[in-house]
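re: the backbone from monday

yeah here it is again, tokenized this time
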């Protein structure tokens, strides 16, 4: 009996000495995904005495979000339809009879810039007064922030997450539309602020146009109105046009309001409000989609895309940012594909989005040329082109 007890104690001591604390690794070690995408991390036991229990935690000890799922054996962590609050470090904890060990991974959520300008416009100052506008931008990757006034880049004071435009004494030349632009790999966002310098003879300011709705859906045979407003001094003249087509013959324009009656499918497209005075011009856009009026016994008629690019002509200087928007009307879903006419590849640094945007952060002289967008759905495809000219000042 004594010999049996001694053997059990010896076996227990040997197990304690020989048992190994688990060692784990995580693949991938870090990941970056866009909002709405999914990602998985696998925690793998490299060595250690079995059995090993695996558990996932946030390093900040906050509970796992409701869109985070753990696989049956605890090794795989999956984040579905990623949100910004999913960003951060995740820890895999491995435990066995000999102890515990951990390994961490980092998840970064990419998203297009969000911009806030303080103060919001229109900003009124008198001649000689200081002007200060702060543009605060967030986004992943961290966006670059620039200011422009009436299309001219401005020198600013920049810190880690904001960019401040300051003028010691306002003069007539500071009146107009100031634009804060934030850009990263996920997109470009602009916020416009009108600065009005009072005390200037004539109160001269360039126009700034805006529309009541950027997108409208109307029913065939009905009437639709599009409203455009514009500020500026002297008061700008407002006119309407349609991209790559004349305005429908049954239209009226009164007080900046465009009215279309007896709508047809051919009236779908991009409508442009243009505000002009002696100091410049400004445009705003409304996308109109005219659908058939169906009864409960009728089926929707599928249609191939009708494609346009906005703008279809663009003149830039080296170092400027290029942004083209491909628009398509037709049965969804619609996929967009960009190419450069006469070239096998797109310029270095060119980026496209699933929404049909073409972005180049800083253009070069060699980027001049014609760019083609092809829109495709299950019915067919169509294309449009835009001419880009890059010329040194």
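seq for it, each position gets an aa:
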């Amino acid at each position: 009996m004594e010999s049996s007890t001694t053997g059990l104690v010896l076996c227990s001591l040997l197990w304690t000495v020989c048992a190994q604390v688990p060692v784990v690794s995580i693949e991938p070690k870090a990941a970056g995904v866009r909002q709405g995408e999914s990602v998985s991390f696998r925690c793998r036991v490299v060595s250690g005495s079995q059995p090993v229990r695996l558990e996932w935690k946030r390093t900040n000890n906050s509970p796992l979000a409701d869109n985070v799922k753990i696989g049956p054996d605890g090794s795989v962590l999956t984040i579905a339809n990623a949100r910004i609050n999913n960003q951060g470090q995740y820890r895999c904890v491995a435990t066995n009879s000999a102890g515990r060990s951990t390994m961490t991974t980092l998840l970064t959520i990419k998203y297009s810039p969000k911009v806030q300008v303080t103060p919001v416009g229109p900003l009124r100052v008198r001649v000689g007064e200081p002007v200060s506008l702060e543009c605060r931008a967030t986004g992943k990757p961290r966006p670059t922030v620039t200011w422009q006034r009436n299309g001219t880049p401005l020198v600013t004071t920049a810190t880690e997450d904001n960019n401040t435009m300051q003028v010691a004494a306002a003069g007539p030349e500071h009146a107009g539309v100031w634009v804060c632009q934030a850009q990263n790999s996920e997109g470009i966002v602009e916020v416009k602020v009108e600065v009005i310098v009072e005390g200037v003879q004539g109160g001269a300011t360039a126009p700034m146009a805006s529309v009541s709705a950027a997108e409208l859906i109307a029913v065939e045979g009905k009437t639709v109105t599009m409203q455009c407003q514009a500020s500026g001094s002297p008061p700008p003249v407002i006119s309407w046009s349609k991209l790559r087509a004349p305005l429908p013959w049954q239209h009226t324009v009164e007080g900046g309001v465009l009215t279309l009656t007896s709508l047809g499918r051919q009236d779908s497209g991009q409508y442009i409000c243009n505000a002009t005075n002696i100091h410049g011009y400004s445009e705003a856009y409304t996308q109109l989609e005219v659908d058939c009026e169906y009864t409960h016994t009728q089926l929707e008629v599928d249609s191939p895309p009708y494609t346009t690019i906005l703008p279809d002509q663009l003149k830039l200087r080296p170092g400027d940012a290029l942004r083209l928007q491909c628009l398509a009307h037709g049965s969804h879903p619609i996929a967009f594909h960009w190419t450069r006419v006469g070239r096998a590849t797109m310029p270095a640094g060119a980026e496209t989005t699933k929404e049909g945007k073409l972005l180049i952060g800083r253009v070069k002289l060699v980027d001049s040329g014609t760019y083609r967008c092809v829109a495709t759905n299950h019915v067919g495809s169509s294309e449009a082109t835009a001419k880009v000219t890059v010329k040194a000042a």
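The chain has one helix and 32 strands. Confidence is low (pLDDT under 50) at residues 1-17, 294-300.
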